[in-house]
Amino acid sequence: MSAATPPRPANVPASATYSADSALWCEDTEAAVRRWYRDGQPLLDAGLRAGKLHGAVSWFSNHPDFNYGAEPSAAATALQQQYDLPIGPPLTTRIEAVYEDGAIVTATFHGYPFGAIALIASWRNGRLHGRFDWQKITQGELLRFGDTVIGAHDVKLPKPHPERGVSEFVDGKRKSTTFFDREGREIVQAKPLKEWGQGFARADLAGYVARGDFERDLAAFFPTARRVTELAGDARPLEQWIERLPEAHRAAARAFDALVRSGRFPWLGQRFDVSGSYGFDCVRNGLAGAADDRYVGLSSDGSGNMHLLDTTTGRVLGWEHESDGFDDRRGFDDLDAFAFAMVRVEAAAAKRIPAKKLADLFKALGLAGAVFELG
Prior knowledge:
Layout: E1 17-19, E2 24-28, E3 32-37, E4 42-49, E5 52-60, H1 74-82, E6 94-100, E7 103-111, E8 116-124, E9 127-135, E10 141-145, E11 148-151, E12 164-170, E13 173-180, H2 202-205, H3 213-221, H4 247-260, E14 295-300, E15 306-310, E16 316-320, E17 325-332, H5 335-349, H6 355-364, H7 368-374
Protein name: Knr4/Smi1-like domain-containing protein
Organism: Nannocystis radixulma
């Protein structure tokens, strides 16, 4: 053993030789090409037939000593290019592929969390064919292989973004895509709403929550959305703050609270999410600029902003996480106006209500805060 050759790791066979230039252990035979890092961690294990990739091929992109998520090592990248292996989603840590006489048949890409499958793809005659199955990737490239580049936005992603997408390819052309939520249920993309309150009048706002119109609209607008069955553990109960509200606002507050806690409220994660924010304790959580017992959480959007109920006035206020304070443009006079507006803002975000027509309705009703929420 020369001075430049390290001790042979236990998992590296005696037939492998060490290359000081690449700092890799190498084994090349007619049936396989195999590479290991200096310490014995695997890098490439590829079957060969007649000099072409054939059978199982395993490629490891990140050395375990690297921080997870780091770029692949130079050695890993060089081997990926040398053997023309596919490039998978961001943070791919391992590829398991099958080849037949130099032609790729299938590839499974593992990524975050460590070992989890990020993408499964299959080919026929050099073209994507069959299942193309990826997990929660919403931007960037999913696959690059030869002249084929598949991006996350090559299909129209529903919002909130799906946990998984499964496409079917036929001879390189995508024929269909099905999306699934985090519970594995198929996401059925709802059609635009024909009736969404176009004829609503200002006088109709009073009592919108208490008389059941709010619950009816939630059910009609979001019939397939998963339901909120659990709130944050420290959510303030209604009994802690209802008596502070002016009497005229209490019926709406009781009905709103009962609906949120009923298990029938849909999860609306883009603009109107009550699951982690309803009953938010601003004092216990030290909410900057709003750490006052008078405020209680109602909902949040997907960017960290919240709506808080001022229990001394019945107004709904918009709290901004970037400024640690309230934005006067986001306010509502009461829970009725807030609920009427936000269920429709959520529907517009899902492309189910025309935003321009909804803005016109909000203006006609004098809901300036709703116009601002619509964006």
